[in-house]
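Researcher: We're teaching a course module on how sequence relates to structure. For the next exercise, students receive a sequence and then see the predicted structure as C-alpha cells, so they can try to spot secondary structure elements on their own. Here is the exercise chain.
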Amino acid sequence: MRIKTGITAPVTALALIFSTAAYAQSQDATGSDNGTPSELEDTVDNAEAPATDGQGNEASSNGSSDMAQSGDNGTAEGGSADLERLIVTVDDTEITQGDVMAMIAAMPQEMRQQPQERLVPMAVQQLIMRQMLLDAAEADGLSEDEDVQAMTEENEQMQNEDAMVRVYLQRELDSAVTDDAVQNTYDEIAANSETELPPLEDVRPQIEQQVRQQAYGELQADLQEGTRIVFYGPDGEPTSASTGGTENSDS
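Model: And here is the predicted structure for the students to work with:
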C-alpha cells in the first residue's frame, strides 16, 4: 500500500532549509549523478509556480486545488488528475505533480528563475530528500521531541512532519561542523587556490557553510542506501528505479 506525502502549500520554511545545498547541487540536476532522469521536466506538466504572496505562500488560500482549476497557470479546468499524477515513489510514499508544484512555489525567487530543466529535477530531489529525512526522523522518534514540539508551537502553520525534518537535518549538519572539519576544509581549499586565502577566522562562516554542503551530500547518499526510489513517466509506468544508489532502467 502506497502513502501520499501529505505536502501542503506552507512548505516555505522547509524549502528554505534545502535552498543553499540544493541550489549548489542543482548545477548537476540535469545529469544522472543525482539519480533524477534527465527527461523528468517533460513528465511534470505546467511546472511554473503559482502566484505567491511574496513569502512563498500561494496567493490562493485553497492551495494546490485552485491551481488545477485556474486557467492562468496553464492547467485545464478540472485538471486535478494532473496534480495527482505520480512522479516518483520513495519506498511506499508517493510524490505527485502537485507536490512538485507546491515545492517550486515555496522556493526562493532566485531558485524559481532557474530553467525548467533544472528547476523540476531540483524540486523532485528536494521532495525525495524530505521523505528520506522524515523516515529517518520517525525512526529516531522525533515526533515527541521537545525541539519539534517547540517549533510547531512557535509556528502554527508548520506541520509536525516538517518540524521533524527540520530538526533532524539541522542536528545532522550542525554535528558535522567541528573544528577539525572546518580546518581540514580550509586547508584543502587553500592548497588548491591560486591566491592566498584570508585567515581562517575571517572566512569561517563561508567555510562552515561549505562543510554543511558537503555533509548534506554525504547524508543524502547515506539515506539513499536501502531506499527504493522509482520514477514514473506520463503514462504512469515506471521508467527507472534505484536502491542504495544503484539505478535500473525499466525503459
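Model: If you want an answer key for the exercise: Confidence is low (pLDDT under 50) at residues 8-13, 25-33, 46-78. The chain has one domain: 3-249.
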